[in-house]
Amino acid sequence: MSITTDQLRARAAGTFWLRLAAVALPLLMIAPAFWNGYPLLQWDTGGYLARWYEGYLVPSRSTVFGLYLHYGENFGFWINLAVQSLATLWLLQLTLRVLGLMQTFRFVAISLLLILSTALPWLASMLLTDIFAGLSILSLFLLIVGAGRISVLEKVSLFAFTAFAAATHSATLGVPLGLCVAGWTMRPLIGRRLPIAGLAQASLTIVAGGLMLISANHALSGKWAWTPGGYGVAFGRMMQDGIVARFLNDRCSHENFKLCPYRNELPPTADDFLWGNSMFNKLGRFDGLNDEMGFIVVHSLADYPVLQVETALRAMGQQLLHVATGEGTTVWIPHTYGIIEHYIPSQVAPMRAARQQHWELDFSTINWLHVPVALISMLALLGLLAHALAKRRLDDLTLLAATVTLALLGNAFICGIISGPHDRYGARMVWVATFVVLMALFRSFGDNEPADEASAAA
């Protein structure tokens, strides 16, 4: 079959735009960091950075992610952002390809819309585990559903990426674990849509992530242990909901707790208690209060079961609505600054020169767009599922929509109930809902457009 001049020109034009996108999109994905002049920092960043240097475990700070940051220090952490940007784009295009929707224009358009309307580029530009929370959902889905449509190298890469993501944060591990449980539960109903081999591989990534974390903890601290701190954050949420004050008022008359003298002075929020200048510091922080906080958490569950359920459901619902971009990046973060100054002095000058350290970050205008897009995306996700149910259709996109919906609910359950509602926990996940909705929109308007030849061949 002969190829016409117009076809040759079209192919040349397509190749040009593809090469341009290959260069531009990775840079745009971390544009906030370029604008800032330095990778974005957050309150928790310092705790991860210090793990390599301090050699002991601290609550909620993964040594695996600490090692990942450490190996980027000599490059000003820009290599970490490059990894995050490229991993994001790789998973976006691989998802499109596996679902039979990969077309150069579609991929570029969806990527640009995500960059402009969601928290995704801010997450990719930050030295924090949050970018891996949403990406792990896509990689887990591809391992399960797309196993027969990807290469061996891609399977290995997805497995390693998902395991690493799970090891970066307990909540990031918890959501994929819940999805695997849901997958095994639903397989008798869905059958071949959830291959046993794919479910087994996905489940093994959780095991591998746990082993990775325990091994890194041992390598840095000499202890075969999980990252500590679970009781502290749960205690903070219960304190914020008034459960701790009620427990102390009921018990302090006949039991002796370190917090009894302060039961009428507890801070209004968990953040004020754990990270502010509160009695938590006076009583020895986690070392001094962990056993007591654990006792109060466990026994208050037994003492006030109805209240616990009511506050937990309210926290979960609130978490679903907390989706604003930028929480924790516009505040003063002396701990992170101090860690960099103490352990990585070569980074002090560029860090101090960044816009963020001059209080030039303001997300109020951005969130006029990001918050409505996030909330509308979640509603549209439910609309997609309702439409598929009405049509009795269970294609791959519907399955992905169901997966993301479960992930959002699981994330709200874990983060809202344990840590309390925070915008950061919602923003790091909800962009995946926007991605699914955009795929559905482009599919509905472009059913007659063929996939790229390379994608079709793969």
Quickly list its features.
disordered C terminus, 72% helix, globular, mainly alpha, 458 residues, 2 domains
Cα-atom radius of gyration:
23 Å
What is the ordering of alpha helices and beta strands?
A: HHHHHHHHHHHHHHHHHHHHHHHH
Strand content range: under 5%
Mean pLDDT: 91
Secondary-structure content class: mainly alpha
C-alpha end-to-end distance: 22 Å
Q: Helix segment count?
A: 24
Q: How many beta-strand elements?
A: 0
Percent helix range: over 70%
Structural shape = globular
What profile does the largest beta sheet have? none
Q: What is the count of structural domains?
A: 2
Low-confidence runs of at least 5 consecutive residues: 453-458
Explain what this protein looks like in three dimensions.
This protein is mainly α and 458 residues long. The protein has 2 domains: 37-227 and 324-390 and 432-457, no CATH class; 230-303, no CATH class. The protein has 24 helices and no strands. Helix 1 (5-29) packs across helix 6 (78-98), helix 10 crosses helix 12 (196-221) and helix 21 packs across helix 22. It is globular and about 90 Å long. The relative contact order is 0.13. The model is unreliable at 453-458 (pLDDT under 50).
